[in-house]
Design brief:
homodimer; alpha/beta; Rossmann fold; 2 domains; 7-stranded mixed sheet
Chain lengths: 414, 414
């Protein structure tokens, strides 16, 4: 291969986010500036599938360029995504495809599993002396990657979850004696569930994160406490707490993807229904309180791709990481993940780099001091962490401490 | 009672909406202008419960006035809501409470069931010569009230559903071979499900409304057609289609409220899970297609109270109907519901009046010409109907017709 013929390839992998295409357009914009080194950038249709089956498109093509500005603000993986762990024969094929198409730069936009795939591909490239520069651009609404202050995609999903929690608490406040349980995304870490606390003080009243072993008996006691304290309970649980319940409750029946993740935990109401039953039993049988509205919702996939709730900061950062990936590749850097490094509360994060080994197959859980002592909410330290990522929330307010006017009649029995 | 002591009372009833408090503040603002006739306006805490148990608050109080502007833009029933059908003894008590507090104007903000309650109370007032002026201000995200072009609350919920459908289709497009079924609110009528079509041309690809008898065998054929035509199927079904399935499928187990409505149909994934199973069976067993992602979500209660997705037109109309209710009451009108009367596509609706008898216990279904011939989508006539209620949708666009570059290697078998 001659130096003047180098091509780049972008792969989008794993669950989409609202800003994953910002990173894509960041790469394309930066590649255009480096066109002395980089002839063109290809995109793989549907992740590694696209590379393996040579389903590639030319993203630097002029027709495609006209689409960049709208594409950047479009949630969802524009190239198409997949969840594939490359096997030995797949890696061999990848290099055949890349060689055939003169591809030497591989930009991998993804989460933990993608970091693992990128690490595998990078190691094979080294072992086989393929002249590959591979860079991983983080994206995950789960915010659970090591080595980065936060992950592109998280801020927008956090914004959605905070607004959903606010909406749901307003709905819940509309009814007397109402308990509402919401299941939010987050298999291993509670970052997204925790972000619901951005809705406002004591909204939601209870949050459960998978970092704390979930105990059903404590949960129903907490709900009782909220009911007695606030007259209601608006609850957010991360779907991952199901892992603490999964044995013996009939919550199984998951398909596993190739990384061993249960791929069906979101999208059904199973966990919510189960928790509603437990709360109902406690209030009806133990407390003998029957006049009570108890409901659940599972927020599902819209958490990650709502187009009109994209966080400005999140969009900018995702774009900047895409840009930086190209600059680093051109300057000879490889086998790294791009990171966001905090420079203080009110300063934008710097772009950094870390080895893929430090990210792959690792999960960054919430630190204990971001979760309250009771394990059912967040601390001010977490809200401080979250603050630089978030847009302000819509100001809303139900009636403040409405005072009843004096009664004039004897009580009524219905 | 002397003429200079007349008081008004506001009751919020049924499911909350994003703009129900606009109507409340509309009433309060108008009442202030008519303070020569109307001394003050009370609010009932938690619907008729509040009237029966004398849980009343003074909404004209200066402390409360400061809250009006924020209150108006706050979704959810600020006074608190309930679903109560007044019995004979309840009606008697209502007049005792109203007499004790010098209340002669009753403003009832609600949907079909509230219109029925208002009709009952109005008839009893006439029969008992209680000097009551009762006016019903419509609100329902279901948009299923007779005699009005549309209902306050619907436009905002329609905006939410359109954005959810768009988000979900972007998510769905991110995966190869993906089928996604979304369950949307709407027990009897498909207005809200239909509004998902505002997301864009062919988004979602299929919409099912309760007006058309739901046939599972036709549904799976439609999904297959969408899959073959668009490479995916993003589907929206109104929860009400469950009524067509409910016998013999294990979908029962509903609590009924006092109006005989099943109160548990939203909030669980039952219907979505059921449809996923049916589609899975068809693709796996009948078509022998197994590499397919099939998921469902149930959008739940957030559809009606998202604070940052309120439609401007909806908010204004809800306010205007509240204002008009007071003007009409002061001028001696009673036993009516306020309506919105279309004056043409690009002109704001006029405020009208209709008898409560024409609304109570009736449901306005979608006319047949708003639903396509196949019963799985909407017509241009429906989109014309919807247009004056909607804000424009966020412009987003995935890659347009991406052309694959020429392959250079033999096909790959994984």
């Amino acid at each position: 291969m001659t130096q003047d013929k180098i091509r780049g390839l972008v792969v989008q992998s794993g669950g989409p986010t609202a800003v994953i295409n910002q990173s894509l357009v960041g790469i394309l914009t930066s590649a255009q500036k480096h066109n002395a080194h980089l002839e063109t950038v290809y995109g793989a249709r549907f992740g590694l599938h696209g590379v393996l089956h040579e389903n590639l498109i030319d993203l630097s093509h002029r027709e495609t360029q006209d689409q960049w500005p709208t594409l950047a603000q479009t949630p969802g993986a524009a190239l198409g995504s997949a969840r594939i762990k490359p096997k030995a024969q797949d890696t061999k094929r990848l290099f055949q495809v890349m060689e055939a198409h003169k591809i030497q730069y591989l930009f991998y936009i993804g989460g933990n599993d993608s970091a693992e795939a990128a690490l595998l591909i990078g190691a094979e490239a080294t072992a086989n002396c393929y002249p590959l520069r591979i860079l991983h651009i983080p994206k995950t609404i789960d915010n659970d990657l090591m080595m980065t202050h936060h992950c592109p995609g998280y801020g927008s999903a956090a914004n959605v979850v905070a607004h959903f929690a606010l909406a749901d608490d307003l709905d819940n406040q509309s009814f007397q004696h109402s308990i509402k349980i919401n299941v939010c995304m987050g298999r291993h870490a509670g970052w997204l569930a925790a972000a619901s606390a951005w809705a406002g003080p004591h909204i939601p009243q209870l949050i459960y994160m998978p970092e704390i072993p979930f105990q059903l008996s404590k949960f129903v006691q907490d709900v009782q406490w909220s009911y007695e304290t606030y007259g209601r309970a608006t609850v957010v649980v991360a779907e991952g707490i199901a892992d603490h319940l999964i044995n013996g409750t009939g919550l199984g029946d998951q398909d596993m993807d190739e990384f061993g993740n249960p791929s069906r935990l979101s999208g059904t109401g199973k966990l919510g229904d189960y928790l509603v039953c437990a709360v109902e039993k406690h209030f009806h049988q133990t407390l003998n309180i029957r006049k009570l509205r108890i409901r659940s919702d599972t927020w599902g996939y819209i958490q990650r791709t709502l187009p009109n709730m994209v966080s400005t900061i999140d969009a900018n950062e995702a774009f900047r990481l895409g840009e930086a990936a190209v600059t680093h590749a051109v300057s000879g850097i490889s086998h790294k993940m791009l990171t966001l490094q905090s420079q203080g509360a009110d300063v934008p994060c710097d772009v950094g780099l870390c080895p893929l080994e430090d990210v792959a197959q690792k999960t960054r859980l919430m630190p204990r001091d971001f979760i309250n002592a009771l394990g059912n909410g967040v601390t001010p330290a977490f809200l401080d962490y979250l603050k630089p990522l978030m847009d302000p929330i819509t100001p809303v307010q139900m009636l403040k401490e409405p005072r009843l006017i004096q009664k004039k009649l004897p009580p009524y029995q219905r």
